[in-house]
Amino acid sequence: MALCLVLVICSFGLCFVSTHAELQRFGQPARTEGTLSFLVLGDWGRKGAFNQSEVAVQMGRIGEKLDIDFVVSTGDNFYDNGLTGNQDRAFVESFTQIYTANSLQKQWYSVLGNHDYRGNAEAQLSQQLRKIDSRWLCLRSFIVNAELAEIFFVDTTPFVQSYFTNAEGHTYDWRGIGSPRDYISNLIKDLKLALSESSAKWKIVVGHHAIRSIGHHGDTEELVSKLHPILKANNVDFYMNGHDHCLEHISDTERYSLSDYCVA
Questions:
Q1: 245 is in an annotated binding site
Q2: pLDDT given at position 169
Q3: Residue 261 marked ligand-binding
């Protein structure tokens, strides 16, 4: 069995199965030959500018060559300040009209980034967007079961305390979060349970923020203290993220390997 993962550097048949604790679980049909291939990108929604359109063309070519099963977005889906609502034309102009290649007409699994929280975060989670473009699926935290691999999507923005205490002039949409402490506590509990019960050959975790990084933003201390120990305890194979607009591969020296992919 093989896992094929392609990271795409940008400038800037879905089946609902069940709920697992508080994390929704989605089934991704497996190939008969026991392989899995997908693209990963982050920090991309620019209405085609900043080389987004050019990269989309290359994504289409690679997607066709590898016959990808789906696409993963690590957040900051729409710049600069997310969407204004579920009728915001930025959704079509930055997503539907950009990723037009036949090979990219697969399911897209997305999480929110900090820029998405600066707009109407609830809009990106709305089923209305799925009616506009059925490829789109964005939730705060959820699981994709692709049989060979289970991918655990984690909402990392509420972990970062500075977004609450020093917003630097930005307004964040914290609807649906409630108490950040309780929200994070419940998310950690649900993630621990889901990871401990997973029997997948590959266990992959996706979030927007880096755990460790030598990029502009550096380490996310809240994830170092709260998320990394969970990944380590449950033998997660690697963690994928965006946020730092660079490409990094960071590994532990111990048996557990942590790979931070910052996709610009």
A1: yes
A2: 92
A3: no
